Amino acid sequence: MTELADIYEEIILDHHKRPRNFREMPECTCSAEGRNPLCGDEVKVFVRLEGESLSDVTFQGQGCAISRASASMMTGKAKGQTAGEARRFSLRVREMLLGPKCEPPEELGDLKALSGLRKFPTRIKCAMLPWQALEAALSGRPEAGTK
Ligand code: ZN
Prior knowledge:
CATH class: Alpha Beta
Order of helices and strands: HHEEEHHH
Structural class: alpha+beta
Low-confidence stretches: none
Mean pLDDT: 92
Bound molecules: zinc ion
Distance between the termini: 26 Å
Shape: globular
Number of strands: 3
Largest sheet: 3 strands, antiparallel
Radius of gyration: 14 Å
Number of helices: 5
Strand order of the largest sheet: 1-2-3
């Protein structure tokens, strides 16, 4: 358990305890749900698009500290980006967790705290869930595919 405890860094705990943008958004333009049966995580992501820009991004749901922290950080990053930028950013996160090992790019900011999850394949699903839900929402799909 000590090794697992290592991944619960200060940043992750902070986002878990005080998730940012944690609310429903009835006026959203698109939304999508993601489920991770392995862990029991459920997340629903709400996006408000104004032109190409994501003017607001929020989430709801319940899950472990990792999925919640990742969702909290995701909403903060995606807000203000264009749909294309948000997709590219999502890819960066995926590469950090699943790609060849390398130093995470600086632009990931707080999300670099999740890089320690590389060692825990089951937790990577938790971390990717909100990003998959975001991608699904932007693609007009109601649910994120579980991969
Ligand atoms: Zn989880």
